[in-house]
Specification:
alpha+beta; 3 helices; two-stranded antiparallel sheet
């Protein structure tokens, strides 16, 4: 079985099997990454992947996961931007049990 050598920011160069590596390809942007769980420190590491890196990893048998950006990313934003004051006011509303109960009892927005 093929061995993959990669770099962990905490541990430096590490080696793992191809089953421990995953390629992620965003169908919306054609941006690719590869990720792995570092065999030494057990932290998840994600790195950008060029087309050449993707081709090499896939040829070695690494699993590929395709994903898309959520539709909300493409929505037109017409309203004003949320300010720090808006966020603070919302924080205080969430801290008010009566306001929270009124809004939770309304159910989902239509």
């Amino acid at each position: 079985m093929a061995t993959v050598r990669a770099n962990c920011a905490e541990c430096g160069d590490v080696e793992m099997s191809i089953r421990q590596v995953q390629v992620e390809v965003c169908d919306s942007t054609d941006v690719s990454t590869y990720s792995f769980l570092c065999p030494k420190c057990r932290l998840r590491v994600s790195k950008p992947a060029t087309a050449h890196v993707v081709q090499t990893l896939v040829a070695a048998g690494v699993e590929v996961v395709y994903w898309e950006l959520p539709a909300e990313m493409w929505e037109q934003k017409d309203g004003p931007a949320i300010t720090h004051d808006d966020l603070l006011a919302f924080h205080y509303q969430l801290d008010d049990d009566a306001w929270l109960q009124r809004n939770l009892s309304r159910g989902p927005a239509a």
